[in-house]
Amino acid sequence: MESIEPQSLKKLCLKSLKKSRDLFSTIHSQLAPLDPESKRIRMSHKISVEYEGIKVGSEIVPGQVNSAAVEASGSSTVLAISGPGDSRVSQKGGAQNALVVGPSLQPKTQNDAGVSGKSTSVITASGSSERNFLTSAIMERIPSKWPRPVWHPPWKNYRVISGHLGWVRSIAFDPSNTWFGTGSADRTIKIWDVGSGRLKLTLTGHIEQVRGLAISQRHTYMFSAGDDKQVKCWDLEQNKVVRSYHGHLSGVYCLALHPTIDLLLTGGRDSVCRVWDIRTKVQAFALSGHDNTVCSVFTRPTDPQVVTGSHDSTIKFWDLRYGKTMLTLTHHKKSVRAMALHPTEHCFASASADNIKKFSLPKGEFLHNMLSQQKTIINAMAVNEDGVMATGGALLCTF
Questions:
Q1: Which of 18, 59, 110, 243 has its CA 20 to 30 A from that of 302?
Q2: Cα four-point dihedral sign 58, 60, 61, 63
């Protein structure tokens, strides 16, 4: 069994403490009060770790460490840490460094170096940083401050909508927020009314399960993609397919619309993200570079204009001007199955079976892990303007 590094153990403890406070604290706007007994135990542990290789004659008690009394001649140095009675130590001559720690538990002898009152223990130490020797152990460390989320009351189930005969693989909302569409493994696309939850329309045309849906904010079009290698454009005024995009060599898993240009992006099992001209059905680019299925994609109006996630555990940034890779992120250890772009901030989140990570844009710097050690494969995620992220996935069971 591999040993856990002390720094890693400290980070895990801090994360566990933060999550426990977020879940169980009744006052979500304030930190939980510190426990004096816990602080005393923590300080005692720090001191024992700091002086593990040194035999100390007495225990250092936090709060009883006074200023060091140094009386030395030549190159000798004496650090005196006084206990009750404020006993002091002086040492003269020689090049020896001495560390004096509190009242000793040993009986006083005649060999003590000029100690009056209670006896003290003299500990020799080498090096030139005696003054800072105790600082790292006794100094109060300020805990790192994680961004505290805004408290939202627990969500409740509003309505259950049923009608599909297979798994619901995709969902997309109309920009007016009056209806939404769902794509299913039963090879149909259903249009539902948001207010009443009633079925308005059923669209048929795919011969395999529908894995992706996207509704245009600039046109009356809806785009769908499925395992039948087909990408279709639906006219929502005529409720029929007006054009299809052919080129994928295997099932299409994801699709996205460029926010400012009439371009459609699709990714699939052929490990390629393809860029289509919506009007002419022409393939503008084939963004190749992934070693496995491209299962998530989103676009931006500025560089990087395209970001793709793949089963090869990487995230790639693409420049649409040249159709080439700008950057490859390798922080995940498992398949990147879902990504979500923040609507107002310059960042995005990516989900994998190991954890959910947050990256900045446009340079792709890793910010922090949003959720670690989860037991779920995240297949879908979304972020609203308030910074609330919703994820959906499949539970992992260990036997």
A1: 243
A2: positive
Q: Which residue has the tokens 């809806």?
A: 222
Task: Tell me the C-alpha distance between 314 and 390, whole Å.
Answer: 22
Residue 156 CA to residue 342 CA, distance in Å, equals 24
List 212's β-bridge partners, or say none.
225
pLDDT tens-digit profile of 135-185? 554 555 555 556 676 777 888 888 999 999 999 999 999 999 999 999 999
Per the structure block, which two tokens stand in for 296? 């998530």
d(CA 98, CA 350): 55
> Does the predicted TM-score (pTM) go above 0.70?
no
Class of residue 283 by CB neighbours under 10 A (exposed 0-12, middle 13-18, buried 19+): middle
Instruction: Enumerate helices (H) and strands (E) in the chain, giving the number of each.
Output: 3, 25
Query: Which residues, in sequence order, are CB contacts of 389 under 8 Å at separation 6+?
Result: 340, 349, 370, 381, 382, 383
Higher-scoring residue by pLDDT: 95, 12: 12
Q: Which helix H or strand E contains 255, and what residues bound it? A: strand 252-257
Per residue, what are the HEC states of 18-85?
A: HHHHHHHCCCCCCCCCCCHHHHHHHHHHHHHHHCCCCCCCCCCCCCCCCCCCCCCCCCCEEEEECCCC
The residue with greater pLDDT, 134 or 318, is: 318
pLDDT digits (tens, 9 = 90+) for 327-347: 999 999 999 999 999 999 999
Per-residue confidence (pLDDT) for residue 354, from 0 to 100: 82
Show Cβ contacts of residue 314 under 8 Å, excluding neighbours closer than 6 positions.
290, 328, 329, 330, 332, 336
CA distance 279 to 372: 43
Q: How many C-beta atoms surround the C-beta of residue 352 within 10 A?
A: 22
Q: What is the CA radius of gyration of the chain?
A: 32
Q: What is the DSSP letter of 111?
A: T
Residue 75: the pLDDT is 41
Contacts 24+ apart (CB under 8 A), 102-111: 102/57, 102/58, 102/59, 102/60, 102/61, 102/64, 103/58, 104/57, 104/58, 105/57, 105/58, 106/57
